[in-house]
Amino acid sequence: MTSEGTRRWRLVPVLAAIAVLSACGGGGGDDGLPRLAPAQGTALKGDCTALAGRLSGIADTTITSSTLVAAGALPSGQQAPAHCLVQGSMHQRVSPVDGNRYAIGFEMRLPVAWNGRFLHQGNGGIDGAVVAATGDFGAGGGSALQKGFAVLSSNAGHDGSRGPFFGVDPQARLDYGYQAVGKLTPVAKKVIATAYDKAPDRSYFSGCSNGGRHAMIAAARYAADYDGILAGAPGYNLPKAALANIAGGQLYASVASDPADISTGFTADERTTVAAAVLAKCDALDGASDGIVQDIAACRTSFSLQRDVPTCGGARTGSCLSPAQKTAIGKIFSGPTTSNGERIYASFPYDPGLAQPGNAFWEFFAPLVLDSGAVGVIFKVPPENPATFNGPAFALGADLDALAQAITATNGLYTESAMEFMTPPHPTRMETLRDRGGKIMVVHGVSDPIFSYDDSESWFRGLDAANEGRGSRFARLFPVPGMGHCQGGPATDRFDALQALVQWVEQGDDPDRLVASARADNADLPAGWSPQRTRPLCPFPLVARYRGSGSVESAASFECRP
């Protein structure tokens, strides 16, 4: 096939997706799918403090309190309307495996003035804490609670004070992976129906990071219960991502100038040098030299780590990379592999956001302290012994081939592998959500160092193919150039994705763009940017391109097109 023929062949699925996006338009054109009716609000019925007693009959559930909270700031500093705070737990038990007590702890915040909607908040990390049920998403848009949603938050079935060691208990693994969501959903809806004398008209699920994974789980396993899914930086292949990060830690250690500090394998100055090289090759590909790389696909072919970053001829100075560093870092971005060359997880795109200080946490601390515990104790079959487990030693000495097998293994006690209980079954097959009129939006920072944007793009491509090129009728992927993990970076990372999702689900308003803005409190913003900078976030595969005139600080100067 000629190069021109190859180019045309590669454009076929992209053009098909563009055609669907164009057909949907901004006004909610007919996509052939059911349209769900808008939610109708009402007021809280009865006395909040008496609600706990009215809820006493829910099976396997203990409601410990119901308290009226006045409008104002929560202890976290978040603003909230007047609401009823309901706290409780489910399925209290003592593990026959490790002897520890377990329960699915939760809280719900029920606005006095309710908008008729329920939002299940997916939380981050390895869960383990009932954080405030406000429904915040990333850095922008305001909380779901502020918007009038009834919001649920949980610990996913375990106490986080024990760190990853809950993973010794088989049921705690399953609750963390997916079962807590299934158990909590009907209880939350029963609480709402009791508090307002009606069930929620529309139900949503949102979260970022592990919360985004929970959202993808809900879309795949519990689609009959949820109308709209908002998944940020979804680690839907979390066991593989954690193992890949351990592999990355080993690669950084192999080129570290200080063996006791793997961050010396790729210093802050060196990351800044690489980011500048990416900008030099890719910034203008979208028509504007503005510090943002919008054309991700074009940058893949325009930038080369080997060619475009200076190679150190002698000592490392921060303005170059040694040949060994280029090899190691190149393997991390292309995706670490097992000994037989099989990629463990996904590749990562080169983006100028890779130099943001926050990424260092995920690159150098997480492999040794967080991912080691997750892989070694929660995901591995059999788990490591908590009494002798040492995270950094485990990570740096791990046999990657053996761990790649261990996260897919089962035995008589652990009957589901990590790749079964942590991931959505058939993530590209979401017909239940689609056919009932539900929608899913995924938002992912292109410079996310732990859950790869490339993995989300691969998910959307697979879903689109499974829907014969019409996946955008009910699913959208919005890359956020420059953004790191859930927020931050040289990016316009404030946007209201939840409102856009509600309007898509309930009004049929097609989310053909999300208008995002910079945050004055974002320490990662480059000095030359206006703190009021705005940009359109475009649904994949479209790119925010400069119109050729107008301020580069304004979203109005950019359009979403191929």
Please summarize what this structure is.
This protein has helices spanning 3-24, 48-54, 170-196, 210-221, 238-254, 268-282, 296-302, 305-308, 323-334, 359-369, 371-379, 391-397, 400-406, 418-421, 431-435, 453-466, 497-507; strands spanning 42-43, 61-69, 72-73, 79-80, 83-94, 101-111, 113-114, 117-122, 150-154, 202-208, 228-232, 439-445, 475-480, 514-517, 534-537, 543-546, 558-561. With 562 residues, it is of the alpha/beta class. The chain starts with a helix and ends with a strand.
- The fold-level CATH name of the largest domain is Rossmann fold
**Mean pLDDT across all amino acids:** 94
Reported for the largest beta sheet, the result is: 9 strands, mixed
Sheet-strand content, in percent, reads 15-25%
Q: Tell me the radius of gyration.
A: 24 Å
Structure explained in plain terms:
It is a single chain. This protein has 562 residues and is an alpha/beta fold. The protein contains 17 helices and 17 strands. The strands form 5 sheets. A 9-stranded mixed β-sheet has the order 2-5-6-9-8-10-11-12-13, with helices on both faces. β10, α4 (210-221) and β11 form a beta-alpha-beta unit. α11 crosses α12 (391-397). It starts with a helix and ends with a strand. Residues 1-20 and 22-29 have low confidence and may be disordered.
